[in-house]
Amino acid sequence: MRGVGGSNPLVPTIDFGLISLAAILLTNDDGVHSPGILILAEALSGVAGVTIVAPDREKSATSQSLTLHDPIRCEAVAEGRYSVSGTPTDCVILALHYLLPARPDLVVSGINRGPNLGRDIGYSGTVAAAIEGANHDIPAFAISLATWTDFQYQGAAQFAACLARRILDSPLPRGSILNVNVPVAPVKGVRITCQGKRNIRNLVVENTDPRGRKYFWLDQDLHLPEAEENPASDYLAVAEGYVSLTPLRIDRTNYDLAEAMASWPASFSKEAIPLTQ
Ligand code: MN
Predict the structure, then answer these.
(1) 124 alpha carbon to ligand 1 midpoint, in Å?
(2) Which of 42, 123, 265, 277 has its CA 20 to 30 A from that of 231?
(3) How far apart are CA 112 and CA 186, in angstroms?
(4) What confidence category does residue 202 fall into, taking pLDDT thresholds of 50, 70 and 90?
(5) How far is the CA of 61 from the centre of ligand 1 (A)?
(6) Cis before 88? omega within 30
């Protein structure tokens, strides 16, 4: 197994001389050829050296899944751009432990084609890739275009470049990422938000295949009526024309609940549970 800094036949040796350039690892869940990642790479290249390591095809809604039961193939499709037959999280791991000659200063994931808001972020491959970066103690953010119809990536890419510069200057605390959602233009400003509660309603569509066997197709109702939301939520920010920046914690522990459960261990011990035999 190769580690960071190992000699690597897929990576050309580049001598930067005395120039010390910050390094960004860029990934996504829409695939290495998606316009969102290519436009973002262009914008970020004005800030730092950018290496793209992204899935070879769309891997949206794969969350933080790993490919453990199939081989993973990796191909250099251009200089500094790798196509990987795995999930976004596979891409980050392969980049950090094999492809990159040194640890990057920032992991960026996106620009996703569609929003990543509220409880939906639990399914998001885009957000998961940023979390994987933070799991390696590397500052990270995920960025998504909060629209289903009007995919204009340029403004979001420029915003991502500003944000990248800011985080490179003053990195996020360990164990944190930013989840960024950019609404369609015109954008009124930027809001620091909380994760909203509303999620997209799942639809299970039942059908029959040509051999008479029943199958199901998961679909989503994207046009829900406005639900009751926290005024500081990510949903409301983008609905009102603001860029939503949600700081997320990797540690999912509910500390208030842990405190409220302080008496549980003693009460369990009274119940003589046969845990040790
Ligand atoms: Mn996606």
Answers:
(1) 7
(2) 123
(3) 19
(4) confident
(5) 7
(6) no
Domain spanning 23-197+228-272, CATH class? alpha beta
Is it the case that residue 223 has pLDDT exceeding 70?
A: no
Quote the ligand 1 centre to 274 CA distance (angstroms). Answer: 46
Dump pLDDT digits (tens) for 235-244.
Answer: 999 999 999 9
For residue 102, report the distance from its CA to the centre of ligand 1, in Å. Answer: 27
Evaluate if residue 192 carries a pLDDT over 70. yes
For residue 39, give the 3-state DSSP assignment: helix
How far, in Å, from the CA of 266 to the mean position of ligand 1?
A: 46
What pLDDT, on the 0 to 100 scale, is given for residue 107? 98
Q: How far is the CA of 34 from the centre of ligand 1 (A)?
A: 10
Write out the H or E segment, with its range, that includes residue 167: helix 154-169
